[in-house]
């Protein structure tokens, strides 16, 4: 108002609205910032504060990335040659290249395995094998053959570089994408681990992604003593946390570290049956696809019983690479853990939703299913695994992971708790009865006395088992070499165009003139990639999935891409390149 006294009435009248507008804008900004304040993690239950802070930070980063995202570049297609008033519509998806990872049924996957579809719609592979839906079992319920096949497939995937490529997707999407800290968590990871399973099955079609039911280890007073963390399964760590043996002992991480790191049990906790039952008791979709990092404007309070919180505590319990989401996928344990989280999610869907509400059902209808969790009873005290025993003393009968030799077992002193041994004096020690021959060592029921009368005998038995496993590994590798497509070949992104006009445009000099469009949609014709079909002439399919895509109606729905890459399957061989370009451009504008 002091300024107004020094100015004319009209000038003052003009200044006041500007000052008021400025004040209102500041008030709105302040109110908005208050509304968008993240949750107060001091409300988190014990052990969840760090997880809450992490999820809150991920949410902030995702919102920041969204706010500062670069605007989408506008590109326009060149005109059709000799039809300067006509240009095709810009495809909805840039550089579309179908891959096995996109598949949601076995018919889609079949060509990538080099198989053929029979009249009953089954996929027949070489040697008469039929591609089946994967059956995900608890890792300790696998047969020796199944387990060794899984380990070999993971190692081959690592050697090919494809494991690292998939792990890097998780690293890049960990913090600013919505893959964590909210409703997308379960859905994003369902798709992600499906892709890992496909990659493994392209190496060995018999493989499925096992799950790790960490409640089986949680029952132990010291869960890190579980046989799960032995050379036979996930491997052991030294005092610095470096994984020194087991199937993944020499896995170099994305960050260049020579080994995986784990710090088992230093913090966090494994899943409990109570945690799982709490998830199952959620009645609404908001309770399962939960808002784990809501702002103060969100009408839903923080859900500290959400599956995302429970899952994160297991990551922290394993520690090392598994602890930060940016490095967690370095460790194959990540995929076993998330397979179990997806199992819990699927059980909730079956309990609380009908088929329409469960969309999409394709994952578990066609791609994979879950074997039941290990269980036993008073009348059937057998967990059907040499790595598990039935605990009859501590509450209702339930399966528990066996304990490694040399570790405390007092909690289960009267039960068959020790792997390859017995509980004596409060510790797991080698059995002391009759020795075991090398001929039958692979067939031993590990719940029976092994008959070892010295530490020398137990070491001999371990060496015999190692030789058996080595022989099994060589046999499986020989079979894999002859039975399936090489993963690296199947995963190579094809060098393709997205429009049948691309070759005509390239000949007319559009590659250097309309760089934005041609680099995005005419990669093959402008030599932004190297094509494998340059020597082929005539009408042919340029992609392995053309027949499947035709059956799915893509010749009409995705006409531009199909006209360029699937001419034979769509029946357009009699149409000249120029005419196909014109027709497709006209239809794309309808």
UniProtKB/TrEMBL annotation:
Keywords: Copper, Disulfide bond, Metal-binding. This is Tyrosinase_Cu-bd domain-containing protein. The keyword Disulfide bond applies. Signal peptide: none annotated. Residues 495-529, 539-573 form the ShKT domain. It comes from the Eukaryota. Disulfide bonds join 495-529, 539-573. GO terms for molecular function: metal ion binding; oxidoreductase activity. InterPro entries: Di-copper_centre_dom_sf, ShKT_dom, Tyrosinase/Hemocyanin, Tyrosinase_Cu-bd. It comes from Elaeophora elaphi.
């Amino acid at each position: 108002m002091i300024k107004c006294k020094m100015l004319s009435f009209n000038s003052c009248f003009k200044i006041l609205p500007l000052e008021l507008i400025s004040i209102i804008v500041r008030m709105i900004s302040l109110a908005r910032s208050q509304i968008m304040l993240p949750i107060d993690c001091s409300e988190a239950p014990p052990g969840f504060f760090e997880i809450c802070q992490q999820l809150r930070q991920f949410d902030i980063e995702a919102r920041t990335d969204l706010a500062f995202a670069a605007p989408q570049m506008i590109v326009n297609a060149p005109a059709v040659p000799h039809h300067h008033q006509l240009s095709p519509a810009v495809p909805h998806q840039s550089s579309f290249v179908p891959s096995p990872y996109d598949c949601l049924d076995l018919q889609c996957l079949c060509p990538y395995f080099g198989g053929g579809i029979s009249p009953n719609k089954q996929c027949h592979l070489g040697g008469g094998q039929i591609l089946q839906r994967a059956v995900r079992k608890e890792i300790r319920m696998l047969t020796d053959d199944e387990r060794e096949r899984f380990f070999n497939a993971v190692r081959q995937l690592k050697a090919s570089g494809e494991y690292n490529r998939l792990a890097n997707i998780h690293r890049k999407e960990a913090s600013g994408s919505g893959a964590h800290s909210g409703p997308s968590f379960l859905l994003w990871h369902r798709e992600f681990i499906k892709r890992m399973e496909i990659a493994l099955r392209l190496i060995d079609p018999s493989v499925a992604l096992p799950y790790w039911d960490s409640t089986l280890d949680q029952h132990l007073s010291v869960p890190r003593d579980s046989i799960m963390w032995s050379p036979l399964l996930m491997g052991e760590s030294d005092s610095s946390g470096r994984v020194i043996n087991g199937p993944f002992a020499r896995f170099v991480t994305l960050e260049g570290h020579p080994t995986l790191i784990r710090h088992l049990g230093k913090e966090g906790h494994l899943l409990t049956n109570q945690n799982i039952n709490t998830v199952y008791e959620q009645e609404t979709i908001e309770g399962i696809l939960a808002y784990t990092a809501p702002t103060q404007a969100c009408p839903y309070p923080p859900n500290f019983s959400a599956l995302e919180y429970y899952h994160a505590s297991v990551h922290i319990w394993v520690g090392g690479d598994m602890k930060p989401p940016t490095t967690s996928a370095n460790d194959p344990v990540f995929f076993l853990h998330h397979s179990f989280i997806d199992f819990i999610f699927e059980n909730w869907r079956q309990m609380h939703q009908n088929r329409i509400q469960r969309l999409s059902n394709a994952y578990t209808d066609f791609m994979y299913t879950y074997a039941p969790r290990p269980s036993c009873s008073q009348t059937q005290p057998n967990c059907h695994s040499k790595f598990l025993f039935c605990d009859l003393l501590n509450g209702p009968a339930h399966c528990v992971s066996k304990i490694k030799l040399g570790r405390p077992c007092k909690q289960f002193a009267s039960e068959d708790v020790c792997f390859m041994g017995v509980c004596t004096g409060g510790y797991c020690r080698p059995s002391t009865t009759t020795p075991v021959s090398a001929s039958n060592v692979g067939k031993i029921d590990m719940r029976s006395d092994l008959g070892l009368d010295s530490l020398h005998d137990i070491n001999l038995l371990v060496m015999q088992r190692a030789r058996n496993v080595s022989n099994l590994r060589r046999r499986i590798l020989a079979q894999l070499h002859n039975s399936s497509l090489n993963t690296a070949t199947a995963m190579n992104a094809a060098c393709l165009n997205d429009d049948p006009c691309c070759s005509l445009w390239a000949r007319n000099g559009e590659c250097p003139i309309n760089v934005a469009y041609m680099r995005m949609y005419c990669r093959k014709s402008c030599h932004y990639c190297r094509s494998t079909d340059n020597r082929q002439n005539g009408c042919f399919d340029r992609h392995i999935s053309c027949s499947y895509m035709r059956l799915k109606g893509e010749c009409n729905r995705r006409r531009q891409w199909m006209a360029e890459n699937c001419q034979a399957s769509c029946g357009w061989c009699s149409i000249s390149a120029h005419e196909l370009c014109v027709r497709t451009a006209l239809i794309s504008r309808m």
